[in-house]
Specification:
Shape: globular
Order of helices and strands: EEHHEEHHEEE
Number of strands: 7
Strand order of the largest sheet: 1-2-5-6-7-3-4
Helix content: 10-25%
Distance between the termini: 32 Å
Strand content: 25-35%
Structural class: alpha+beta
């Protein structure tokens, strides 16, 4: 399968990708685990994962609760490597309240509406003192009921900007 480019919020994202199309090995392993836990379902639930098995990825994980009434996501958990990018702990914050939050939410809303994993590659962190980094992410839908997407599990790969 070859990944397909889609344009969301003025950025290119990727859908219909295989694990070997993810540009970093931890992302490949993370996606394989999600696929294993999904089985024959569209997506797994949060209960299908234990903190112990996610331990190696936790510094780079973000877990979001989808709030359909607000068409927004609340940050439930943010790994230490990601949290250090923020001026304060973003746990509990809404995505739309973050820098470029409306734009970020457009990509997340696609994960929710399309019920599929979406990958981002080579995106910049456009915060005033953080432009020296770029990131890749794998955004994975979760559903307690097997119907509505109620959470998104994200793994972020931080990289220095190559100049």
């Amino acid at each position: 399968m070859a990944a397909k480019a889609v344009h969301l919020a003025h950025r290119t994202h990727w859908v219909d990708f295989d694990d070997n199309e993810i540009p970093w090995s931890a992302g490949q392993d993370f996606f394989r685990l999600w696929c294993e836990r999904r089985g024959e379902r569209d997506c797994p639930s949060r209960a299908d994962f234990t903190p112990v098995e996610l331990k190696r990825w936790l510094p780079h994980v973000v877990l979001l609760d989808y709030l359909p009434e607000k068409k927004d996501c609340r940050i439930r958990l943010v790994g230490t490597a990601i949290a250090e990018l923020f001026p304060r702990d973003p746990t509990g914050m809404l995505i739309r309240d973050l820098h470029n939050g409306d734009q970020t939410m457009l990509g997340l809303q696609a994960v929710i509406d399309w019920r599929i994993p979406i990958m981002a590659k080579d995106l910049s962190i456009e915060w005033a003192d953080r432009s020296y980094r770029i990131f890749d992410s794998v955004n994975l839908p979760l559903s307690r009921t097997g119907e509505a997407i109620d959470m998104i599990l994200i793994l972020i790969n931080l990289r220095p900007l190559q100049v």
